[in-house]
């Protein structure tokens, strides 16, 4: 769980995407629960842009623990 304020999260996201041009995200896999009203899970292929955003957010929220990036 992230316990940062909404403003802190918005600032971290703004900083993470600053300077990144729009890009296409390709999907690797789509899964879903058997109940129609439940979770849809989309796994994306890694890209330079997603990795850059992830690293920036990881720096901003380094106190929340380790997370293995697998978009």
| pLDDT < 50 stretches | none
Largest sheet: 2 strands, antiparallel
Order of helices and strands: HEEH
Name the helicity range. Answer: 25-40%
Distance between the termini: 18 Å
Indicate the proportion of strand residues.
15-25%
Number of strands: 2
Instruction: Compute the CA-based radius of gyration.
Output: 14 Å
Number of helices: 2
Strand order, main sheet: write it out: 1-2
| Helix/strand class | alpha+beta
Quote the average pLDDT.
85
Question: What is the 3D form?
Answer: globular
Descriptive notes:
The chain is of the alpha+beta class and 71 residues long. It contains two helices and two strands, in the order αββα. It has helices at 6-17, 48-60; strands at 27-32, 40-44. Strands 1-2 form a two-stranded antiparallel sheet. A hairpin with a 7-residue loop joins strand 1 (27-32) and strand 2. It starts with 5 loop residues before the first helix and ends in an 11-residue tail after the last helix. The mean pLDDT is 85.
Write the layout of secondary structure elements.
Layout: H1 6-17, E1 27-32, E2 40-44, H2 48-60
Antiparallel strand pairs: 1-2
Helix pairs in contact: 1-2
Could you give a short description of this structure?
This protein is of the alpha+beta class.
Can you tag this structure with a few keywords?
globular, 71 residues, 2 strands, alpha+beta
């Amino acid at each position: 769980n992230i316990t940062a304020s909404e403003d802190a999260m918005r600032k971290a996201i703004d900083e993470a995407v600053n300077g990144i041009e729009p890009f296409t995200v390709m999907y690797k896999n789509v899964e879903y629960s058997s109940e129609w009203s439940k979770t849809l899970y989309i796994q994306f292929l890694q890209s330079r842009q997603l990795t850059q955003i992830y690293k920036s957010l990881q720096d901003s929220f380094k106190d929340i623990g380790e997370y293995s990036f697998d978009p």
